[in-house]
Amino acid sequence: MSDTKQGFDLDISGVAGFFGGDVSVSAMATVHIYEGRKWLGWYNQPGSYEIAKRYGQLSRSRFWDALYPGVNVDPAILFEFDGTEGPKFMASQSGTVLAKTGHVARLFAEECKDLKAPEPLRNIPTWRTTTPGYVSVAHLSHIPLQEETPHQERNSTSILASIPILTSLGACAGCAAIRDWYCFAIILLGIISSGLSCYVIGMGTLKFKHPPQAPGAPPGDGVLESGNTELIVLKGSEGAVTAITRGQFSLDYDSKPEYRGIGICSMLLTLQFVAQLLLIPQASLHGQLFFLATLACAWVYNSYLSSFDRENIQRKILLEQVLRMDRKKLEKYELGTRTAMVTFALLLLAPGKTVALKRVLDDLLPNDTDVWAYWKGEVLARIEAGFRNNDPPSFSFNFSQVPDQFKDSRQLLQTLQGDAEAAAAVYGVYRTGRHTTIAASPEAKGTATYKSDSMHYRPGDSTETLAYR
């Protein structure tokens, strides 16, 4: 007589298809990131119905749409490699304005947001603080290919996968030993359906794509506006900048566009769920305990896989493999006000056409009163005059006296001029750091010392120790 006939039955069939579904879906999404992960799904895991429902929506035909209703989504969006909006982009040379960029630009903006800025130069006479803002500078020297295939990451998931795999196989053997063929069949079906699904879904290739650079295009220098307190200045060729502003990750399958293989796997997972509902109540207590042990072990392992921040891994792939960018080429500076922050960004974008710089300035500071219009004109005129030598080692606005027509707004205008001078001082720190980086190269190390009117730099100093003079 079986244990269930003696009056005690775990009856876990009703929750097996739902319990741990979100964790299992998240764990399945790691097959495109970790090397060899697609071969390691051969274990009975919970949430088969949730996995089938989620991935069944990839398949595109009348049959699959009827079986798994819902909006058909792109695989890259489903697996969170694409589909989010990035910050606004304004080019200072070409005049291009993108009100919304894509997922890649958002990843890059998040990377810049995590950068740590050195201590601000609060001892500058004109420094003031209202709402502190940050400006990151990215020097892009590599133009990615129009289509690149990043290599997958390596970690300890391959070794740890043996634990749920051996647990499921051992549970199968245990069920066979006690002659509980119901649980034996259900666990074996779970191993097969999960393993095949992991393999088929893992057949997709993660790729990075971006539009080609137009022949004769000007430099792609521009600024990303990431919120009210974050600006990211991109400096590089049109192709290098376009990779960030218009590039995207995609998942390419040979079965595109119907994704028939994924649909078949989703059907197999649905069959597993139905079989669990019918057969698990007929199994013995010991068989149900074996079945429960496989689910618990798989849930722990899937939770471990889900704990990895896949977005951070994408950011690492973007910087190291696609952009091939050394993080040392990313710099960040803190300024006390938005006016100073925008002025500093303009200095980083200079030299450029005054019309294009004015467009960026008006976009970032839309204030259009007479005082603001006068100040903007003065800033642009002095940037144009100061950058005639292309890239001066130091810069100062040297504003003239406030005109009589603005005597009622003298204090406001002097405040704005002070913000601009503070931005110029921070620009001097930036130029000093750039000069020092070049001087510290193997062929020029120890051969240069930089001095400017507002600060001086000695070998061994860092940007944190530079003081305004």
Uncertain parts? 1-6, 435-469
Number of β-strand runs:
9
Radius of gyration: 30 Å
Q: What is the share of helical residues?
A: 40-55%
What gap, in angstroms, lies between the N and C termini?
A: 92 Å
What is the assembly state of the chains in this entry? single chain
Tell me the overall shape: elongated
What's the rounded overall pLDDT mean? 84
Q: What is the element string, with H for helices and E for strands?
A: HHHHHEEHEEHHHEEEHEHHHEHHHH
Please provide a written account of the structure.
This protein has helices spanning 13-16, 21-28, 48-56, 62-67, 75-78, 103-113, 157-160, 162-177, 181-201, 238-245, 260-279, 285-306, 310-322, 338-349, 354-364, 370-386, 410-439; strands spanning 88-91, 97-98, 133-140, 147-148, 205-209, 222-225, 230-236, 248-252, 330-335. The protein is α+β, with helices and mostly antiparallel strands and 469 residues long. It has a six-stranded mixed β-sheet with strand order 2-1-6-7-3-9, with helices on both faces. The radius of gyration is 30 Å and the shape is elongated.
Q: Could you write a compact summary of the structure shown?
A:
This protein is α+β, with helices and mostly antiparallel strands and 469 residues long.
SSE diagram, text form:
Blueprint: H1 13-16, H2 21-28, H3 48-56, H4 62-67, H5 75-78, E1 88-91, E2 97-98, H6 103-113, E3 133-140, E4 147-148, H7 157-160, H8 162-177, H9 181-201, E5 205-209, E6 222-225, E7 230-236, H10 238-245, E8 248-252, H11 260-279, H12 285-306, H13 310-322, E9 330-335, H14 338-349, H15 354-364, H16 370-386, H17 410-439
Parallel strand pairs: 3-7
Antiparallel strand pairs: 1-2, 1-6, 3-9, 4-5, 5-8, 6-7
